[in-house]
């Protein structure tokens, strides 16, 4: 049996293209301040064939129908590109074979219940539509139609789709800008990180076509912030999440270098630092965190950095090359910067108050293994001490003095000692802020003020995985999902957040992947070899696995994430013995037990 794959428009997307009798897109209605306002998606010409250029189409036989069992995936080559062929519940599906985020091979990911999860960073895609369902990343997969003729499977696909391996969802445009003056918008988004951008894109994807304004203190359009510490010499245009043309095409306005100083929730007005005021109907606060600074003498001198922008990262790399670098704080940022500079700097010293890096997050044993890897790469640790003074010579940093009495030579100092929520401007707003400065939201990312939503690093939200305990998860993937949930609920969808936290860190060409929420773990079950840096660590609380981390053990973290996402409980006993069925399923990829009942 041969299987044919043909690029088709997913049902959800097709429904958006259905035409009304007059040949135009059927209008939808959205109420703005009580007034009905019509909007529609971009108009598209009626086409009987989704392939506008027949020369752009390729068709190939890829296998016999019996070559794949249910639950199996296979990369298939169509001559000018590859597709991912999937068989589930007796049906074949075909989508792009690479994750649009960083290009991970999805054939090595996890297939479960109609979606495939990326093995590297946990993004999830619907196998029927190709739509992205969990993050990180912004684009979906191209979807190809599979046809079976004479027991053979054929794929018919657009060459362009095979080459790009990504699909941007159809979006609306703003059709009512003339109804607004410069100081009025329907949706105002404060912050232009992942949460803010995904919120804006989701609104457009759902057909919203009123005005959207994003504002940011940054000078750049939204960019891939995790790369500031992982790939420090990247220029802004290299790490931009979307090109400038994208924002113009879909009428998403971005006000750069604009800081909001206060919000009047009664009048629905945001007041900017320069005195400018903007009226809004719906508000998303996604301001993220502000890095903590040192409190010692000399903290303001030249060559002392908090890495917050591409310019900061670029400047550090330039100054650190063949020089002495001191990094304060064995945080994710501090450790990633140390790893990046180790081969470039003359020396890298890392100062940390704890006795092991990452102890609270990964546990002592994993922390020691990571520390050893750094020491083998010429990074020198000064643990259980703090900085007491920064000394200068001719106005520039020269030495870092530790409370232990040790004096370190330093031409550059990078501070990575944590961050605080950037919510100070909300103190008099009436928006519920907790004692640490985090914005408190419900499962729909709503604050206590109607029409005001919050997302990203600055929020406390109910985590379904931990019985709806209010938590702060300051990670890239979670910010994406927050933004999407906020947008859907601005449109009154009533969607609740239920995603499993997923993060990663990269150091010396190796990655640690992590899923779940391990805060308060009381034990760590480790399988594999820590010395060889090939291991999986299960974090348990009482008898339950609450999180997992791994290095060189893909795709086990994505498998555990999928189990947790299904609402299943993994018991400590299931992972203590490598011969247990549950642990074996993580190793073999057999996820069929997920369809059973109970834990």
TrEMBL record:
Residues 60-155 form the Rieske domain. GO terms for molecular function: 2 iron, 2 sulfur cluster binding; metal ion binding; oxidoreductase activity, acting on NAD(P)H. It holds the Pfam family Rieske. One of its GO terms (cellular component) is mitochondrion. GO terms for biological process: execution phase of apoptosis. InterPro entries: FAD-oxidoreductase/Apoptosis (IPR050446), FAD/NAD-bd_sf (IPR036188), FAD/NAD-binding_dom (IPR023753), FAD/NAD-linked_Rdtase_dimer_sf (IPR016156), Reductase_C (IPR028202), Rieske_2Fe-2S (IPR017941), Rieske_2Fe-2S_sf (IPR036922). SUPFAM superfamilies: FAD/NAD(P)-binding domain (SSF51905), FAD/NAD-linked reductases, dimerisation (C-terminal) domain (SSF55424), ISP domain (SSF50022). It is found in: Mitochondrion. Gene3D superfamilies: 3.30.390.30, FAD/NAD(P)-binding domain (3.50.50.60), Rieske [2Fe-2S] iron-sulphur domain (2.102.10.10). Keywords: 2Fe-2S, Apoptosis, Electron transport, FAD, Flavoprotein, Iron, Iron-sulfur, Metal-binding, Mitochondrion, Oxidoreductase, Transport. Belongs to the FAD-dependent oxidoreductase family. Induces apoptosis through a caspase dependent pathway. Reduces mitochondrial membrane potential. This is Apoptosis-inducing factor 3. It comes from Platysteira castanea. The gene is Aifm3.
